[in-house]
Amino acid sequence: MSTIKLTRWDAADHLKTDQDVALYLEACLEENDPALLAAALGDVARARGMSQLARDTGLTREGLYKALSAEGNPSLATIMKVMAALGVKLHAEVLPRVAG
Questions:
Q1: CA separation for the pair 49, 27 (Å, rounded)
Q2: With 70 as the cut, is the pLDDT of residue 45 above it?
Q3: Quick one: average pLDDT of 32-57?
Q4: pTM of the model
Q5: Distance CA 76, CA 15 (A)
Q6: Residue 70: CB partners within 8 Å, gap ≥ 6?
Q7: What letter does residue 69 receive in the DSSP assignment?
Q8: How confident is the model over 44-57, as a mean pLDDT?
Q9: What's the pLDDT tens digit per position in 52-65?
Q10: Separation CA 100–CA 85 (nearest Å)
Q11: 10 Å Cβ neighbour count for 41?
């Protein structure tokens, strides 16, 4: 019987282009889950280089890893700093009103 070797899937390994990053973050924003957005920003940060992001934002690498994890709870200011350093921005749109 042969042994199958599995590796952990990491989104950061698949975020190669700016378009990949934008589509990934847009999909995460659509879920309306702050923890998911923080974790997704962490994925993008790891794909781009956490050390450089720390320098660009003025935050520590350790602080970024903690804030941009699924268990993290970054402030809006941190999210905006990270997104600006990554060259992306939040998107807002008007939702259709539900009759009721």
A1: 22
A2: yes
A3: 94
A4: 0.83
A5: 23
A6: 35, 36, 38, 39
A7: S
A8: 95
A9: 999 999 999 999 99
A10: 42
A11: 27
Sequence spans of domains, the chain: 11-86
pLDDT band at 38 (very low <50, low <70, confident <90, very high): very high
Single out the residue of 85, 88, 91, 90 nearest to residue 18, CA to CA.
88
- What does the block give as tokens for 22? 């934008």
Please check whether residue 15 is in contact with residue 24, taking contact to mean a CB–CB distance below 8 angstroms: yes
CA–CA separation, 3 and 61 (whole Å):
37
The SS3 of residue 37 is helix
Specify whether the CB–CB gap between 66 and 76 falls below 8 A: no
Decide if 34 contacts 76 (C-beta within 8 A).
no
